[in-house]
């Protein structure tokens, strides 16, 4: 080991620890984050402070502020976050700019006491029998450099799952360890335990190259078979939360190798930190058809065998999980859940930040929309066309798109959806498009489990294609509504919650395709969905021409969005020579064409702008938009007549009437009562 001069005696362990961190971080542009959580508050409610490198006194004071608060557990990490994090945000793994060392989370009370393969820089005791050996690097590492070392260290020590998380936050020597409810159930005293140095730091640093060489034997899992574990009584899994990735594995259908998939499920459970009995209960509850391999028997024994085999699992296949941007740092031992709330101070609201769109002025990032229509009106066809354009990065009906991964949940007619996409591919000549089609049974009303499973699939797909998911389309609502009743607010509310959860976990826009009632006026079922979405669209058909209209939007375009027809594309022929075809969308009149002013209409609009500038007044009443000026029709007409004085009054009257009607229909002029203004 190398050595760094240890400046302090250990009479003030908090200051000693903080000074050590700042010495190691000298010269790095980043911040240390101090997190305090109180076990007495709901969801461990806590506070976050951030400290620039060199702010030793401020960081010590922030930690000491909680020393006399009952229930307050205080943590910081062996890593630095980027500067500029929003107030109250402690950052995620993607915000880490440097990793200063690794910690083995060796808890005797969870059965993960482990062994040390080499001497640590120092050891902290967080409570009697629970230790955290620490290896400080002789140079800062990036997340990419540190992740494989952390995974190997976990395997080498047989320690708790926090060891493998390079953005974990850890207890601070000199603070108190207040037990949470889970620890009290394991028999811990309600009195806080002192967090203290078991072996003090004397300036020793670990050479990174030597550490990498020492961990080489644990770069992958051992091949030898272990004895099956002995399972006790299995618990009820109601209330047990599975990670999105685990939920997706449990619900998977049609996997290539069911045996290998079962191993992945068990390995993920160990990675997520489930105890053996809970993991076994989850394993036996799997809903995916991969579990049919057991045919009602042998599943318990197979789980016990695999759990024993993967006591020190190979996490190399889960490196993507370690790098997931959505995972926040987890507090050691306590694992406080993330807050249910998303808070932003007034002064932290970002200025000059434009709205992000998936399709410009139609679909906003992270929003929720609804497309409805009668059967046969082309609602699924136009949704598929939009999905293909966004995934391919192509303009859609003259509007810019933001390219990214698109997940199309074809809950009905998956094969037909794929044929439509095949027709698009052939018609437009595109390839390498990040568009994923998902079929299978989904239930978005009984619980949030399938929403989380979908989010897990999205996370894996993002890794596979290297693109962030921007749009998720669910076709149709009826096929994913489970046993719920669409006409009740209670069940529709559950469906809305599932969509909200999907948006929260992925950040993608979610569009639901829905059937209208036979009246064709709105999507069928409880009206709660209409109020929950950011925009709603209707697709109507008239004599072979289809129209997509927005009948309500928070801040996007309303009215006609697109008109189109369909063209049949031949995909293949069967043995009798009969062709298999699928439709592609053929745009009708574009937005630019619809808004283009023809003939005398341009002059009539110019006259309105001119008279508004000269004689417009600010209207009274709450029905008018803010900041507009208005005039009466007679003022507008007089301005036009004056500008076109060469024609007869009768001719000008006809031109004005036709132009006014056209401008109002296109939405380029607005009217309330006797008042008019350009939109």
UniProtKB/TrEMBL annotation:
Spans traversing the lipid bilayer: none
Question: Which residue range or ranges hold the RepB-like DNA primase domain?
Answer: 117-187
Q: Which Pfam families does this entry report, sorted A to Z?
A: AAA_25, RepB_primase
Protein name per Swiss-Prot or TrEMBL: RecA-family ATPase-like protein
Naturally occurring in which organism (per UniProt)? Nitrobacter hamburgensis (strain DSM 10229 / NCIMB 13809 / X14)
């Amino acid at each position: 080991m190398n050595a760094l001069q240890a400046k302090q005696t250990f009479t003030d362990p908090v200051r000693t620890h903080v000074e050590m961190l700042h010495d190691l971080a000298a010269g790095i542009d980043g911040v240390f984050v101090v997190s305090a959580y109180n076990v007495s508050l709901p969801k461990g409610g806590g506070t976050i402070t951030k400290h620039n490198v060199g702010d030793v006194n401020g960081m010590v004071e922030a930690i000491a502020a909680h020393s006399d608060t009952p229930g307050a557990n205080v943590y910081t990490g062996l890593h630095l976050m980027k500067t500029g994090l929003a107030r109250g945000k402690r950052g995620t793994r993607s915000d880490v700019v440097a990793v200063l060392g690794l910690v083995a989370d060796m808890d005797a009370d969870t059965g993960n006491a482990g062994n040390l393969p080499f001497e640590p820089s120092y050891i902290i005791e967080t409570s009697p029998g629970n230790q955290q050996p620490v290896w400080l690097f002789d140079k800062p590492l990036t997340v990419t450099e540190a992740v494989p070392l952390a995974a190997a260290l976990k395997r080498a020590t047989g320690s708790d799952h926090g060891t493998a998380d390079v953005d974990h936050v850890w207890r601070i020597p000199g603070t108190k360890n207040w037990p949470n409810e889970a620890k009290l159930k394991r028999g811990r005293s309600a009195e806080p335990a002192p967090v203290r140095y078991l072996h003090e730091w004397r300036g020793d640093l670990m050479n990174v190259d030597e550490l990498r060489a020492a961990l080489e034997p644990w770069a992958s899992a051992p091949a030898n078979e272990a004895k099956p574990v002995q399972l006790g009584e299995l618990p009820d899994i109601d209330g047990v939360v599975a990670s999105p990735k685990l939920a997706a594995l449990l619900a998977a259908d049609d996997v290539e190798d069911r045996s290998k998939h079962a191993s992945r499920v068990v390995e993920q459970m160990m990675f997520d930190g489930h105890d053996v009995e809970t993991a076994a209960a989850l394993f036996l509850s799997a809903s995916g058809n991969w579990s049919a391999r057991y045919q009602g028997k042998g599943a318990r024994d197979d789980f016990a065998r695999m759990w024993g085999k993967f006591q020190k699992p190979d996490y190399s296949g889960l490196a993507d999980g370690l790098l997931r941007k959505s995972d926040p740092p987890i507090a050691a031992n306590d694992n406080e859940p993330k807050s249910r709330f998303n808070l932003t101070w007034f002064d932290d609201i970002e200025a000059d930040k434009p709205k992000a769109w998936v399709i410009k002025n139609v679909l906003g990032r992270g929003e929720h929309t609804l497309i409805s229509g009668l059967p046969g009106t082309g609602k699924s066809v136009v949704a598929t066309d939009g999905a293909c354009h966004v995934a391919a990065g192509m303009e859609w009906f003259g509007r810019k798109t933001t390219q990214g991964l698109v997940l199309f949940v074809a809950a009905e007619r998956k094969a037909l959806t794929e044929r439509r996409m095949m027709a698009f591919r052939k018609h437009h000549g595109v390839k390498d498009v990040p568009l994923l089609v998902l079929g299978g049974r989904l239930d978005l009303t009984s619980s949030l489990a399938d929403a989380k499973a979908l989010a897990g699939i999205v996370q894996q797909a993002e890794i596979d294609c290297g693109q962030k998911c921007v749009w998720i389309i669910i076709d149709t609502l009826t096929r994913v509504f489970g046993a719920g009743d669409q006409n009740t607010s209670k069940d529709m509310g559950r469906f809305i919650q599932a969509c909200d959860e999907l948006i929260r976990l992925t950040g993608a826009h979610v569009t639901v395709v829905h059937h209208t009632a036979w009246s064709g006026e709105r999507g069928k079922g409880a009206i709660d969905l209409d109020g929950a979405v950011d925009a709603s669209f209707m697709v109507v058909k008239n004599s072979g021409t289809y129209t997509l209209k927005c009948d309500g939007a928070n801040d996007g375009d309303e009215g006609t969005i697109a008109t189109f027809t369909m063209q049949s594309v031949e995909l293949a022929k069967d043995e009798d020579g009969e062709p298999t075809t699928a439709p592609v969308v053929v745009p009708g009149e574009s937005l630019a064409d619809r808004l283009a002013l023809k003939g005398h209409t341009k002059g009539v609009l110019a006259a309105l702008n001119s008279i508004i500038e000269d004689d417009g007044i600010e209207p009274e009443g709450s029905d008018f938009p803010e900041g507009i000026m208005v005039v009466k029709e007679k003022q507008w007409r007089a301005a036009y007549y004056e500008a076109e004085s060469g024609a007869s009054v009768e001719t000008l009257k006809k031109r004005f009437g036709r132009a006014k009607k056209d401008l109002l229909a296109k939405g380029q002029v607005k009217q309330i009562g006797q008042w008019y203004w350009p939109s």
